[in-house]
Specification:
The protein is of the alpha/beta class. 45% of the residues lie in helices and 16% in strands. The protein has a five-stranded mixed beta sheet with strand order 4-5-6-7-8, with helices on one face. A three-stranded parallel beta sheet has the order 2-1-3.
Length: 256
C-alpha cells in the first residue's frame, strides 16, 4: 500500500493583528502539529494539492490570549517585534510570526538572542522593515491647517504603520486637533486636543471629501520659506533622494 501524502492545514486569516493572532490561536489549538499547519492571509492565491483550507474568523478574545502569552512567556520586546511584523506588507508575515512563536514558546526570552535561527531572522527582518518605514513618516509627514483649526496630514505607506506613527504626533501635538489619513487603506488616526488618539475606518466618500479640501495659506508660506533658504550652489538631488526617497514625497509640502 502506497504511503499517503501528508496534508497541510492552511489557516486563512484577515490581514490585521486580530486576524493573524486569532489564526495563531486556532492553528495551535488544532493540535495538528506545527509542521502540518501554515498561516496564510486571505486573498486571491493558487490552491495547492494536499492542503485543507480553514477560514479564520477574527476573535479579539483569542487574539488577547496570544498577546498575553507572548508577553508573559517570551518578553515584552518579543511582543513589540511581533506586533510590528503583523503590520508588514509581506504576504508571508502570518506564517513567519507563527514560526517565530513556535520557537519563542519553546526557548522563552532567550529566543530574542538566537540570531542564527531562521524563524528569528525572518521576524526581525519584518520588524526592521516596518520600524524603518514608520520612522521615515515621523520625519516626512506634513500637516496642513484646515477649517476649524484642524491639522490634517496624508500618507500612503507600504506597510500599515499608521498605529506606529500616530503616537509620535499625539505626544508632540497633544494640544492640537489633528487627523492623519492613510490614503491607501482608508484608515485615519484622529486626535482630539488634550485627549487620546484612536483609529477609525473611513468610508471612500469620506476619504474623498477629506482629500478634496483645500489647505489655507500656511502651505504657501512654508513653500516660500523652503525656497528662500535653499542655496543653489549646494543643491544635491542624489543625496536628497538618499535622505528622502521619492516614494515619501507624494504629500510633502515643499515638493507639491
Amino acid at each position: 500500500m502506497e504511503n499517503q501524502p501528508n496534508h497541510t492545514t492552511v489557516f486563512l486569516c484577515r490581514d490585521d493583528p486580530d486576524g493573524i493572532f486569532t489564526a495563531v490561536y486556532d492553528a495551535w489549538a488544532s493540535r495538528r502539529g506545527h509542521a502540518c499547519v501554515r498561516l496564510q492571509l486571505e486573498g486571491p492565491s493558487t490552491l495547492e494539492l494536499f492542503c485543507d483550507y480553514i477560514p479564520v474568523t477574527p476573535d479579539p478574545q483569542k487574539a488577547d490570549k496570544v498577546i498575553g502569552a507572548i508577553r508573559q512567556n517570551i518578553s515584552l520586546q518579543a511582543w513589540e517585534a511581533v506586533y510590528r511584523a503583523a503590520l508588514s506588507r509581506e504576504e508571508r508575515k502570518a506564517d513567519i510570526i507563527y514560526r517565530f512563536l513556535v520557537a519563542g514558546f519553546h526557548y522563552g526570552p532567550a529566543v530574542m538572542e538566537m540570531l542564527g535561527e531562521p524563524a528569528v531572522q525572518n521576524l526581525f527582518a519584518l520588524d526592521r522593515q516596518v520600524g524603518n518605514e514608520a520612522h521615515f513618516f515621523t520625519e516626512f509627514l506634513r500637516f496642513d491647517l484646515m477649517e476649524q483649526d484642524i491639522l490634517f496630514a496624508k500618507m500612503r505607506p507600504k506597510s500599515n504603520v499608521l498605529s506606529l506613527v500616530a503616537p509620535h504626533f499625539a505626544d508632540r501635538l497633544s494640544g492640537e486637533n489633528f487627523l492623519i489619513l492613510d490614503v491607501g487603506r482608508s484608515f485615519a488616526a484622529i486626535h482630539p486636543a488634550g485627549r487620546s488618539w484612536y483609529l477609525l475606518s473611513i468610508e471612500k466618500e469620506q476619504a474623498e471629501a477629506l482629500l478634496s479640501q483645500k489647505p489655507n495659506s500656511y502651505r504657501d508660506l512654508w513653500k516660500t520659506f523652503h525656497s528662500a533658504i535653499a542655496v543653489e550652489a549646494r543643491k544635491n538631488p542624489k543625496l536628497q533622494r538618499s535622505l528622502m526617497p521619492l516614494r515619501y514625497r507624494e504629500f510633502v509640502t515643499e515638493f507639491l
